[in-house]
Structures are given as structure tokens and as C-alpha cells.
Design a protein that fits this description.
Blueprint (H helix, E strand, L loop, with lengths): L9 H21 L6 H14 L3 E2 L18 E4 L2 E3 L13 E10 L2 E10 L8 H17 L7 H14 L10 E4 L5 E5 L16 E4 L2 E3 L5 E3 L6 E3 L5 E3 L2 E6 L2 E4 L5
Antiparallel strand pairs: 1-4, 2-4, 3-11, 4-5, 6-7, 6-8, 8-13, 9-12, 10-11, 13-14
Helix pairs in contact: 1-2, 3-4
Subunit structure: Monomer.
Cofactor: Co(2+); Zn(2+); Mn(2+); Fe(2+)
Protein name: Methionine aminopeptidase
Length: 256
């Protein structure tokens, strides 16, 4: 399903996006050396419920996962890049942490992700990798607008990631979003310009460039959810929810 919002619905989408951004920045500030991932999950739960919103993850049970996710935020450490299931792990100096969050507020969803290094240490290549995903995300957003096509976004993202030297996995990518978290159209992180669905005002998209340092192959943890790089290399992931407007694209999940 591809859902097109009415102009009257956009303020609610902005509220959902602002909440996601606020929670992610709060968790980034709290995720210091010695913090347990289970505490990050608990704090996220408190903020979601305190805002009168709902988690998109707790009861989420797609075909690629093992049962309901059962947590409120995805926490991927170092080689874990997608669907990181919070567990009893204490963050160490130099850990590369990815936080991915989606919530529904007043009937509309927003989805975003950030990657950052905890503490003072900076593992080789970590900052460059995070920067590449952020630049790829910005490039995808820059070409999004009415009349553009999904392939234009995929090509812009892929060009940045390829030029930075990273392999690109196409199993998971961006997606439409609206009253539910995952909708059509799929937005691959590489592709050909001029192809695919034509963007229209009112369309919401979650764009999410993610990379692994030296491989494009994923492996799944025993928890049935957490996806890691096959080689154990570092990973990074950046994501925003955007709304296609009459004259371009509006980022709904920017930090205020």
C-alpha cells in the first residue's frame, strides 16, 4: 500500500517526527560508557508512553523476525547494524552505537536512526563511516520532491556510498510510512535514476542509508532479530522520515 496524506494530516506527522527526534537525542545523551542497553530501552519506553504515543516495535512480528520484537528501540553495537534487539550489555568506550526508533502518535508513524561513538575512543574508520551514511541521507533528501522518482533517491544515496568505498546491501532499505511503519514503496540504497514510483505531495518516506565496512553480507543473531556484518566489521546507519511537499521535501525527524 502507498499512502498519500492530506495536507490536514501533515501537522500530526510533524508531531510524530519531532517525538522520534527528541527521544533519539535524549538517548544519545544518556548512552554513555557504563550504560546498559536495557536501560536505554526502558527510558525509551517511558518517553513514548509519557508522550501518549505507541511503539511500532513491541508487537512487531514480520516474516523476517522471530516472534514479536518485544522492545521499544533498536540498539545495534559495532557490527550490529539493523534490528538490534536490546539485551544485557554495558556500553564500553569506543563502541559504535546505532539507535533506530519508530513510533505512532495520533495515528501517524515516524521512523529515524542515528549512529555515534560512545565515550572518547574513536575506532579506525568509524567517524568516516557514520559521515558517509549522513551524507548519503542528505543527498537522497536533496533530490526528493514532486515529480522525482524513487530511483533518483536510490541513485543519489548509492553514489555517495559507492564513492566512499562501501559495499551496499539491497535486502533492506528505506520505505513508505504513514499510518503504519512499513509501507510501499521500497527505497533501495542504490539504483538507477529516472526509475520507479513518481513522488507526490503527501507521500511520507523513511530513507535509511546503512553500510558495513568491508562486506555486503548480513548474518542473524540467535535472538532471531539482530542483523550483523558477516565479517564482524563496523557498521553505521542514518535515517530520517521526510514528507514530499509541493516544492520539495520536509524532514520530519530533525533534531530541534
Amino acid at each position: 500500500m502507498i499512502e498519500i496524506l492530506k495536507p490536514s494530516q501533515l501537522p500530526r506527522a510533524r508531531q510524530a517526527g519531532a517525538l522520534v527526534a527528541d527521544i533519539l537525542q535524549t538517548m544519545k545523551a544518556r548512552a554513555t560508557v557504563g550504560t546498559n542497553l536495557l536501560d536505554v530501552d526502558l527510558w525509551t519506553k517511558e518517553m513514548i508512553l509519557g508522550a501518549g504515543a505507541e511503539s511500532c516495535y513491541v508487537d512487531y512480528a514480520p516474516s523476517f523476525g522471530r516472534g514479536p520484537f518485544g522492545h521499544y528501540i533498536c540498539t545495534g553495537v559495532n557490527d550490529a547494524v539493523l534490528h538490534g534487539k536490546p539485551h544485557d550489555y554495558v556500553l564500553a568506550d569506543g563502541d559504535l552505537l546505532t539507535l533506530d526508533l519508530a513510533v505512532v502518535k495520533d495515528g501517524l508513524a515516524a521512523d529515524a536512526a542515528i549512529s555515534f561513538v560512545v565515550g572518547e575512543k574513536r575506532p579506525a574508520g568509524s567517524i568516516e563511516m557514520i559521515d558517509a551514511t549522513e551524507r548519503a541521507l542528505a543527498a537522497g533528501i536533496a533530490v526528493a520532491g514532486p515529480g522525482a522518482r524513487i530511483g533518483d533517491i536510490s541513485h543519489a544515496i548509492g553514489t555517495v556510498l559507492h564513492d566512499a568505498g562501501y559495499p551496499i546491501n539491497v535486502e533492506f532499505g528505506g520505505h513508505g510510512i504513514g499510518s503504519t511503519m512499513h509501507q510501499d514503496p521500497h527505497v533501495s540504497n542504490t539504483g538507477r535514476a529516472g526509475r520507479g514510483y513518481k513522488l507526490r505531495p503527501g507521500l511520507l518516506l523513511a530513507l535509511e542509508p546503512w553500510v558495513m565496512e568491508d562486506t555486503d553480507e548480513l548474518v542473524t543473531d540467535a535472538d532471531g532479530w539482530t542483523l550483523r556484518s558477516k565479517t564482524g566489521c563496523l557498521t553505521a546507519h542514518s535515517e530520517h522520515t521526510i514528507a514530499i511537499t509541493d516544492d520539495g521535501a520536509e524532514i520530519l525527524t530533525s533534531a530541534r
